């Protein structure tokens, strides 16, 4: 039986991971530590709040004393570190918060873990510190380049990516220097339920439902590898169960799409949903459908983001061959499921409408 501490467990990936873990490992206990910043929502975890195997703690990962106390009192043996500032645009306009959370916060967790888990060298506690990172630490690919693998040199191009690269290095150093039992995963772009509506897919869905323009940076030909959050959770599970201590693993959907093609597909799928259910027009009166228009009428091209990476793509052969990972959710089917979730959770979307 494992006793997990999940940082950032009320955010997008964290929420999905906690729900996944308790469903797949009902005998384990999970404690969530989350500061509930703008993208965190404790209501995401309502389905597990009453479980005797679950505890929620509002707090900051930079509070080393709090983290140390949780590790001791909850007898944590597995820490899954998901707490992070993750939106590139926000990192460009305000990089300080990214340095504080992603670098200083990660170091705070490492210090607490070292103190609790490695305090007695003669009797070390069996433990795991799993750090969830991003493929953006590798930089940008040209269209003809091979995807990133775990040996690709780091070359981050945004303050967000640089802060995640620094945190990766810190985690690895605590393994090499102190013997902390760590693993790292670098994932491609996630999508799915509970994603804050600032990222591309939920932004497009919510803007269409609210009749707002869909901004496309530059020419829209930036390429991203899309990974369903469900598949991502399974990948983390495999790493925790079978991954080799000290190793990094890329987790990707192996499904690369240009941004403009992703947006066009979203528009098409939402058009189909509204065509099949006339009641949707009554619910979403600001949508283009109420005016007899397609969702694609909202697409508008805007000035490209500063330092915008052209392409991400990850080579997943290591986690596939060593741990048996394979994505199960195809992108088109995953988008359909995601769209229906947002259509069925209008109140959840509205709760974020004034958050910025």
From TrEMBL:
InterPro entries: dTDP_Gluc_deHydtase, NAD(P)-bd_dom, NAD(P)-bd_dom_sf, Sc_DH/Rdtase_CS. The keyword NAD applies. It holds the Pfam family GDP_Man_Dehyd. The lineage of its organism: Bacteria, Pseudomonadati, Pseudomonadota, Gammaproteobacteria, Alteromonadales. GO terms for molecular function: dTDP-glucose 4,6-dehydratase activity. Its EC number is 4.2.1.46. Residues 5-338 form the NAD(P)-binding domain. Belongs to the NAD(P)-dependent epimerase/dehydratase family. dTDP-glucose dehydratase subfamily. It comes from Shewanella mangrovi. Coiled coil: none annotated. Keywords: Capsid protein, Lyase, NAD, Virion. It is an enzyme of class 4 (lyase). The keyword NAD applies. Its cofactor is NAD(+). This is dTDP-glucose 4,6-dehydratase. GO terms for biological process: nucleotide-sugar metabolic process. It catalyses: dTDP-alpha-D-glucose = dTDP-4-dehydro-6-deoxy-alpha-D-glucose + H2O.
